Amino acid sequence: KRTIVWFRKDLRLHDNPALWEAANEGIVIPVFIWSEEDRLAYAASEASAWWLYHSLKQLETDLSQNGVQLIIKQGPEFDAIVDVMEQVGAESIYFNERYEPTERDRQMRIVGQLSSIGMDVRTFHGNLLFSPELLNKQGEPYKVFTSFWKRGLQEVVDRPLPIPELQGVENDISSVAIDALGLPTDLGTLQKYWQPGERAGTEQWAFFADDGMLHYKKERDLIAKGTSSRLSPYLAAGNSSARTIWHAAKRINEETRDVTAHQSIEAFLKQLMWREFAYHQLIHFPTMTDQPLRKQFNDFPWIGTPEQYNLWKEGKTGYPLVDAGMRELRETGMMHNRVRMVAASFLVKHLLIPWQEGYAWFQHALVDFDTANNATGWQWVTGCGIDAAPYFRIFNPYLQSEKFDPNGSYIKQWVPELANLPAKYIHKPFEAPEDILQEAGIQLGETYPYPIVDHATARKRALHAYDTIKGRS
Ligand code: FAD
């Protein structure tokens, strides 16, 4: 049997159900298709496009080392698949599902088209722990994470799959070079911080499993220490498999007697389950990428200005923790989860700028951009999502900063103009006496901005704005 395996956001060989199944049945013809829709989608997410370029390079190498050539086609999927199918005499096509609304539409269309010409089309769940379509006992989507978590624990049953033995076939099908796809090969300073691809993802997991995961519960919020896994971009591109990580973490949990490690591993598994919950929401509420799940937020009186939006993006708000996060994002394509929450909340509540604008900037700049997680994150912070933080709970960026970056090392790393300020003043430079500022080489309003909004005033304004929509349905 000859089967086309269509690679999408599952750019890896291990635990890849579509690849595994095809390989076990015979000859595999791996294909990646770059359609106009892909080009448009990736145009909005530059950092992910850079990640894609390098992941594809790695996949191409890994496949060829396993004796199989990755075929890359441009143009509409149907034409590309039919072209390959005719040239190699394939009768079946397997692929792992994607869950974003536009991707689901594409999938449905393509499955219909290919089935109508007699092709055997099979789809698999390769990127999540289980199918996100599940419903609760009342036949409804889960709306509370804790119930979803309990149910989810019963659903993670399939064991991860190893890398299959691959058997290719001699062919002279024309294939486009990855370099010809127009993806960014170098992007700012990203290459300084990341090595995309399956191998690096596996190494990153091993590194985290060995140490960080065992202290995760206590240390994950210590921003400067950075003890979270940093696996998100690998998961987003499918270089890593959530299922492989889940089961490996479970095994470590079974082997250890350390209570701190148990608690930490459970806390980490919960984060992986949040990813599942995000996809569960996206499947059931596909409009959530740009529409609030709590409809009254459609009437929210947003009044922030484009100038403020730009200052936020540039990390020039005068709030050191927010600025550090936004600059880390620009420089590395990543931002710690705690800082994401604070920076996002600042945009939505302190500046009263619509969360969709924040979503768009994160989409553009994050190496781990993921439609489901980004939408869930923004709706959670705004208070307009499922199981979200209530709107009136407004993060105080100063307190967050004092608590999670107590000596200011994270701030000093990303906002170097504050590097010489004593820890006592690092969270609120405007409270530092003039001589201390001078000694630290800071001239407020010149070398570092005053806060663009006053915290207490902004807080009051946000609550007042919320009052205008509170009672509405
Ligand atoms: P860890 O703490 O090590 O967690 C392990 C894995 O669990 C992560 O890699 C991720 O896949 C998943 N995870 C962790 N936290 C969450 C969460 N809150 N929701 C869903 N899954 C989670 N995550 C993305 O992957 N892509 C995004 O585009 C994204 N946008 C976000 C936007 C906002 C406003 C907020 C508040 C959060 C967003 N997150 C997003 C969630 C979270 O910030 C990142 O997953 C996390 O910071 C990645 O770092 P890590 O891999 O070290 O995470």
UniProtKB/TrEMBL annotation:
Enzyme Commission code: 4.1.99.3
The protein, known as: Deoxyribodipyrimidine photo-lyase
Family: Belongs to the DNA photolyase family.
Molecular function per GO: deoxyribodipyrimidine photo-lyase activity
Photolyase/cryptochrome alpha/beta domain location: 1-129
Pfam families reported in the protein's UniProt record: DNA_photolyase, FAD_binding_7
Cofactor(s) demanded: FAD
SUPFAM superfamilies listed in its UniProt record: Cryptochrome/photolyase FAD-binding domain, Cryptochrome/photolyase, N-terminal domain
Gene3D superfamilies tied to this protein: 1.25.40.80, DNA Cyclobutane Dipyrimidine Photolyase, subunit A, domain 3, HUPs
Regions crossing the membrane: none
The entry's keywords: Chromophore, FAD, Flavoprotein, Lyase
Top-level division of the source organism's lineage: Bacteria
Gene source species: Sporosarcina saromensis
InterPro entries listed in its UniProt record: Crypto/Photolyase_FAD-like_sf (IPR036134), Crypto/Photolyase_N_sf (IPR036155), Cryptochr/Photolyase_FAD-bd (IPR005101), Cryptochrome/DNA_photolyase_1 (IPR002081), DNA_photolyase_1_CS_C (IPR018394), DNA_photolyase_N (IPR006050), Rossmann-like_a/b/a_fold (IPR014729)
